[in-house]
From TrEMBL:
Active site: 450, 856
The name this protein goes by in its record: Pyruvate, phosphate dikinase
PEP-utilising enzyme mobile domain ranges (all copies): 418-500
Record-annotated Pyruvate phosphate dikinase AMP/ATP-binding domain positions: 16-52, 59-284, 292-350
Length: 896
């Protein structure tokens, strides 16, 4: 393996091997931009080092060769006494991880070469300043010495001389400081500061390798979903000096404003400084414009270079540069990070400037960024008191009264209040409160906790894991650790689901004009935008989203089971409902009717209960078909296990036992109920009597639903509407299961057609959520008009994970151990579960090439999963109404 690449050998597309920094340094070289020469040690060398704990021999040899070449180019030798070459050793991974890893400057200085540098440069102050920086950086990063020892000594040196800035330290002071720093090294490591330049170089290279695995780097990668096995490249580069005096300096700049996207001159410059001085904020920086006065030649050259880079990368770039005695050097560039709104504006601007095509513009934005633009936001101008900070789990801005329970939540919302549900953590019992609350705040749990997942699904603002909070629901108090403030139910707080902040009291909220645009059209969006910048944002989103719709092959449906949700989904651009769940329709008052069905002794009793449910269920569907007039609505027949509609076994047993003990006597009916509950109790209901199995056991229940769908469709047709229902059978594993239900359906639908004198066209399809269904999809096709992959259950059944049990108990360990980088419930596991989807697709289409196949489940709204679904040829994804715009954008992105 070749481990070392000179800057002249690489280019911008070699990021895997050279890291982003190395690849872009090479690219700038190619463009003829002044870059100090050097070479890059590949990420593969880092991977080997991390695996075995030492660098391969051949790396040592390649470094020698590359270094000698560099020495010849520069006419200097590393650390040589007379005229030393100095180098920087810089980290740089494939994905930028700003400030997460290490860099060491001024390698090659020692007790001899310091004199050479001082003499050659004619600037002893600069030379000694560089030496003390080397010992400081080397001590910290290579030798692992606590950095405070050095910075304390530096502060003491300034204090004893009564000065405030590093630059005011004179040669004598710096010499003393170097001695002190060397003493610190000797004291802390037992060895003197290494004088051998090559030893310094190798030590620094290995320290950069190791910095891949610092805690902060690990945490950063986990958050940004960067794989842990990539490793960093190391760039060894000739030093140029911004700290040579007043004609030198160092700076950073952007080719456009990273927050508005507008072109212009954005950057900072610091005279007589090196490396991180600019961003470290040790002295006040100048605005980049001021460089024009100081050094017009360098300034003009920098502007030209910015233009060259932006034209070449065809995107906003950020840049690090240094001026050494009036000569400009570029030290780094990359496509710059930007805010979500700038991403859309810059992409649209570049299309306008004819620098990129619309297709390319789609690659410059993503669904997550769009999500951020959709939620209401706190007014930036407002005064705020921060109580604490948790994890941003579901974006948005919510203000309301504190409530601690479902009952409080419902009571206060009925009274017209906005509420924030505050819980230590949430569980399925809290759903009622979560539904009515404007926001959800928990003290425990992470981004995949119950609260977070449910809140995201509902598009509800949510902050989780605010660990400083102590929630005492019983006493109705909320306190913040380390403060004696006690909050009670009814006190107003505000939570920011985008930043994780929790504020005390009312904070004004403004709706997002982007949302108004998506829901009501361009004119409404523009009218809602209060300033030019926001108008530009709305126009930019419009440009990109309409282009995405044009390019997308996947269409986007929504998961909705109430007319309001259906209407919202439609306004957001959904082309149908891909999953209308029916179980919620049997809760509340109707639960008793289901209980009756289950308890019925005779067919007659059961029929009675069905008859009572029928009209109610039909009303549900009429509302949804009306909201979705002209668009398909896939109704899933009832899915959950029976026991969910019955009282809890333990609770009921205890209740009756208590009654008996108190001599109250238990009625025959109660005994029978207990008996039935016991019969229906399951050890593992997720794999028990549910879905089509329930439908086959209680044929009348599915029958009732099918009839209600058909009658609702007939009602709508009579009312002049255009209903397009589709009947979906859940948890099918065998073609025979589907066949029986389908035959029932055909019969029922025919009956309704005859009774009502209408023509109904209602396809019947299967939900594919068992591995067996995917593998036998070709035979299922005989009985199915369409398929929809239920990837939530398919993930559970393929992995053998019971979601509610596994996420809380061991997923964190699994992330740490690298079993997966992201939960398979969040982003589809393409190798396993995804493979089942593609097998299912191939099987199905081998028999019926035209059969419509979609995906429902949370993956339908996840960007990475959407790209996968596009690639395996699905027709649509279905996701929660709030995710529809995001999915539209991603479907378009997947197609370009
Ligand atoms: P990061 O990735 O954290 O930005 P860098 O490798 O870019 O770290 O280096 C840290 C600082 O040192 C930057 O300000 C950079 O410009 C400066 N620097 C790096 N190499 C050199 C060099 N050869 N000459 C002068 N300054 C350098
Ligand atoms: Mg940098
Ligand atoms: Mg399911």
């Amino acid at each position: 393996t070749k481990y070392v690449y000179a800057f002249t050998e690489g280019d911008k597309d070699m990021k895997d091997l050279l890291g982003g920094k190395g690849a872009n340094l090479a690219e700038m070289m190619k463009l003829g931009i002044p870059v100090p020469p050097g070479f890059t040690i590949s990420t593969e060398a880092c991977q080997t080092y991390l695996q075995y704990g030492y660098s391969p021999d051949s790396l040592q040899v390649e470094v020698t060769t590359a270094l000698r070449q560099m020495e010849m180019d520069m006419g200097k030798k590393l650390g040589e006494a007379e005229n030393p070459l100095l180098v920087s050793v810089r980290s740089g991974a494939k994905f930028s991880m700003p400030g997460m890893m290490e860099t060491v400057l001024n390698i090659g200085l020692n007790d001899e070469s310091i004199h050479g540098l001082a003499e050659r440069s004619g600037n002893p102050r600069f030379a000694w300043d560089s030496y003390r920086r080397l010992i400081q950086m080397f001590g910290k990063t290579v030798l692992d010495i606590d950095g405070d020892y050095f910075s304390d000594a530096l502060d003491a040196a300034k204090e004893s001389r009564g000065i405030t800035h590093d630059t005011e330290l004179d040669v004598e002071a710096l010499k003393e400081l170097v001695d002190e720093f060397k003493a610190i090294v000797e004291r802390e490591t037992g060895n003197p500061f290494p004088q051998d330049p090559r030893e310094q170089l190798d030590g620094a290279v290995e320290a950069v390798f190791r910095s891949w695995n610092t805690d902060r780097a690990l945490i950063y990668r986990r958050r940004e979903r960067i794989p842990h096995d990539l490793g960093t490249a190391v760039n060894v580069q000739a030093m140029v000096f911004g700290n040579m005096g007043d004609k030198s300096g160092t700076g950073v700049c952007f080719t456009r404003d990273p927050s508005s996207g507008h072109s212009g001159i954005y950057g900072d410059y610091l005279v007589n400084a090196q490396g991180e001085d600019v961003v470290a904020g040790i002295r006040n920086t100048l605005a980049l414009e001021d460089l024009e006065q100081l050094d017009k030649k360098s300034y003009d050259e920098l502007l030209d270079t910015m233009h060259t880079l932006e034209t070449h990368y065809r995107d906003m770039c950020d840049i690090e540069f240094t001026v050494e005695e009036g000569k400009l050097w570029l030290l780094q560039t990359r496509v710059g990070k930007r805010t979500a709104s700038a991403a859309f504006k810059i992409a649209a601007q570049l299309v306008e400037e004819r620098l990129i095509t619309r297709d390319e513009a789609l690659t410059r934005v993503n669904g997550e960024q769009l999500t951020q633009l959709l939620f209401p936001q706190f007014d930036d101008e407002a005064d705020k008191t921060v109580l604490t900070k948790g994890m941003a789990a579901s974006p948005g801005a919510a203000v309301g009264e504190i409530v601690f329970s479902n009952a409080q939540a419902v009571e206060r919302t009925n009274a017209g209040a906005d509420v924030i549900l505050v819980r230590r953590e949430t569980n399925p019992d809290d759903l009622e409160g979560m539904v009515v609350a404007s926001g959800i705040l928990t003290a425990r749990g992470g981004k995949t906790s119950h609260a977070a997942v449910v809140a995201r699904g509902m598009g509800r603002c949510c902050v989780v894991g605010a660990e400083a909070l102590q929630v005492n629901a019983a006493e109705g108090t909320l306190t913040v650790r380390g403060s004696d403030r006690v909050l009670k139910a009814g006190d107003v707080i505000a939570i920011d689901g985008t930043s994780g902040e929790v504020f005390l009291g009312e904070v004004p909220v403004v709706p997002s004009p982007v949302t108004i645009y998506i829901e009501q059209g361009l004119d409404a969006g523009l009218a809602a935008a209060q300033d030019e910048a926001t108008k530009e944002l709305v126009t930019s989103v419009h440009l990109l989203l309409t282009h995405a719709d044009k390019r997308a092959r996947l269409t986007v449906r929504a998961n909705a089971d109430a007319p309001e949700d259906a209407a919202r989904a439609r306004a957001f651009g959904a082309t149908g409902i891909g999953l209308c769940r029916t179980e919620h329709m049997f809760l509340g008052d109707r639960r008793q009717l289901i209980e009756k069905v289950i308890l019925a002794d005779s067919g007659e009793e059961q029929e009675e209960a069905f008859d009572a449910l029928g009209p109610l269920q039909r009303g549900d569907f009429v509302g949804i078909f009306e909201a979705m007039n002209g668009l398909p609505t896939t109704v899933r027949l009832i899915d959950p296990p029976l026991h969910e509609f019955l009282p809890d076994l333990t609770e009921l047993s205890v209740k009756l036992a208590v009654k008996e003990a108190q001599g109250e006597g238990v009625t025959a009916e109660e005994k029978k109920l207990l008996e039935t509950v016991r019969e229906n109790h399951e050890q593992n209901p997720m794999l028990g009597l549910r879905g089509v199995r329930l439908g086959l056991k209680l044929r009348g229940l599915f029958g009732l639903q099918i009839r209600a769908i058909a009658e609702a469709a007939a009602d709508r047709i009579e009312a002049g509407g255009d209903p397009k229902p589709e009947i979906m059978v859940p948890l099918v594993g065998s073609v025979r299961e589907l066949q029986i239900i389908r035959e029932d359906a055909v019969e029922i639908i025919a009956k309704v057609e005859e009774d009502r004198g209408v023509k109904l066209d209602i396809p019947v399809g299967a939900m594919i959520e068992l591995p067996r269904a995917a593998i036998t999809a070709d035979s299922l096709t005989e009985e199915a008009d369409f398929f929809s992959f239920g990837t939530n259950d398919l993930t559970q059944t393929a992995w053998g994970f019971s979601r509610d049990d596994v996420e809380a108990t061991f997923f964190n360990e699994y992330f740490d151990l690298g079993v997966f980088g992201v939960s398979p419930f969040e982003s589809i596991d393409t190798r396993g579960v995804g493979k089942l989807v593609s097998i299912g697709m191939k099987n199905a289409r081998s028999v019926k090439p035209e059969i419509q196949c979609g995906v429902c489940g949370e993956h339908g709204g996840d960007p990475q999963s959407i790209h996968f679904f596009h690639s395996v040829g699905l027709d649509y994804v279905s996701c929660s109404p709030f995710r529809v715009p995001v999915a539209r954008l991603e479907a378009g992105r997947a197609a370009v």
